[in-house]
């Protein structure tokens, strides 16, 4: 376990070498958040009300800020790209000789990067925009604590999805477009752009049951108090079930990929 902690720490410190990139990333995050908030302000102004379907404008502003925070600290394209580069250079074969798990290495590496982005990008961005626009507190202490739990689940699920898509590159021999496909699915079905309570039926019902919903929609819905206590526990359990399913898929694909490398490499 100490080896994986070392990988996480190394990933965190390696990000510090690119300090100029911090300001560029913060600026980029600010532009994205300002754009999302401006869209909802324009939408509510066009309707001529401050409450739509029981959702206030301030709740939507908070939703947009939280959506950027939840998604901003995790980079699926980075995980998929890491697998693609290792496959292209042949470094992936070295992991067959190490008494370590490649999926766990990827997870530790992403944890280090997550911590770096959280401190240098997400927290400053959310703090600045919250002071500028105003941000609602959690609906209750319970909702605030459960938001943290759902955020951790969101990070785990997003990593497992990215690893699963990345491992598919062993059969395609390239990770090209895999990150784009996952990104498109997340944009549409995670609730990042539009929360599901504004989706038409039956699309809303379908989207609520897809694993992508636990990446953005459910953490934000919990924070805003849109779910009852029973629903919070129910969806936490369902999210953990999705995570377990993706974990099994990642481990199975890595085992198949390892066999494929061994056969092709001799």
Automatic annotation (TrEMBL):
What InterPro entries is this protein classified in?
Answer: ABC-2_transporter-like
Q: Which UniProt keywords apply?
A: Membrane, Transmembrane, Transmembrane helix
Transmembrane spans: 114-136, 148-173, 180-199, 232-254
Name of the protein described by the UniProt record: ABC transporter permease
The record lists the organism as Rhizobium ruizarguesonis
